[in-house]
Amino acid sequence: MKLENARYMDEWIRVPLCGTGDKLYHYTTAEGARGIVQDKKFMATKSDFLNDKLEFQYALEVMEKLVQTYLVNETFAERFFTLVKEEIRRLGIISIEDGEDGPSDRMSFYVVAFSKLQNNALLWAEFTEFHGYCLEFSYEKLVEGFEERAFLHGTVIYDEKEQMTCLLEGLLSCIHGLVREGRTDLDGFFEENAEVSEESLQALAEDMAMVCSVYAMFFKKSFFEGEQEYRFVFTPLEKGGIEEQPKFRLFWQMFLPYILVEYGGGGKALPLESVMLGAKNNSDIATRGMKHFLKVQGLDIPVLLSDIPLRY
Asked: CA 179, CA 181: separation in Å to the nearest integer?
């Protein structure tokens, strides 16, 4: 559900942003916590290796439902969706499955996932098996610290009706913009006997493909809603025309590609405000060890222990 007075990514892309004073939480392992606190580097996972490997393609499913719902002429609807899909494939932002060859890999996006929830059982289980750490950050300072590189950020949208509304508003904005440019045949786009030139339809498909591709980064299926995710999406850096190559971490005997995103170029302090230990990480040594680690890093912040009851 959209919030009143919410701030959005921009006029066309209605992805909600956090507000002044908001906190974000990052669940991670001991190794991940050390890298963030000691080196100020976040591990950003390649988009098609997230917990839902096809989530960047999910927005295309929603787009197809939107076209089928609002365009009553089935032949016209199919033609428009085909053009949008072709343009999305050309852009390469969304990896569309292409038979045995797998998804297109011409553009790479890497995600650092945060949550709006602290001490959440689902997130403890998914990311740390209750042994890890939950790091609390200032939202505003996080954004400031990443400003030296290109990225997008926003609240993940899980509700399909809201996703449809976002894409419909984007479609209407694209149509209105093109009509103002002189493509007046698009005024009848939603009519059953619409007569839209191929040139105008192609122009609309190109604009809508970009809108859909950006939303793809922030749409997830509803059964992930319990994560309440707020994500930062990065592209690899380029040096001399060569794209930054990923590193690989091992997780359950799998190789997962990632890049390291450094926080705070120019010496900004890490905006870490507290650290919570998972419920299984409840020994006195674990707590004292984290406190000592933070002290050595020059951080005087609370160290908390999750109080979630567990059955062993």
From this structure: 5
Contacts with 276 (C-beta within 8 Å, 6 or more apart), sequence order: 118, 119, 133, 134, 136, 303, 304, 305, 306
Per residue in 163-191, pLDDT (tens digit) is 999 999 999 999 999 999 999 999 999 99
Regarding beta strands 41-46 and 254-262, do their DSSP bridges make them parallel or antiparallel, or are they unpaired? antiparallel
Considering only CA atoms, give the Rg of the chain: 22
SS (H, E, C) 36-100: HHHHCEEEEEEHHHCCCCCHHHHHHHHHHHHHHHHCCCHHHHHHHHHHHHHHHHHHCCCCCECHH
Token pair for residue 193?
């006997």
Beta strands per DSSP E along 147-268: 151-155, 229-234, 238-239, 242-243, 247-251, 254-262
| 261-281: burial string, b at 16+ Cβ within 10 Å, e else | bebbeeeeebbbebbbbbbbb
Model confidence pLDDT, tens digit, residues 96-130: 654 444 444 556 789 999 999 999 999 999 889 89
Strand partners, 42: 261
Output the six-digit token pair for 74.
Answer: 């089935």
Bridge partners of 303, per DSSP, are 275
- Give the chain's end-to-end CA distance (angstroms, integer): 37
DSSP letter, residue 236: P
What are the two backbone dihedrals, phi and then psi, of residue 292, each rounded to the nearest 5 degrees? -65, -40
The dihedral over CA atoms of 117, 122, 123, 129, expressed in degrees to the nearest 10, equals 150
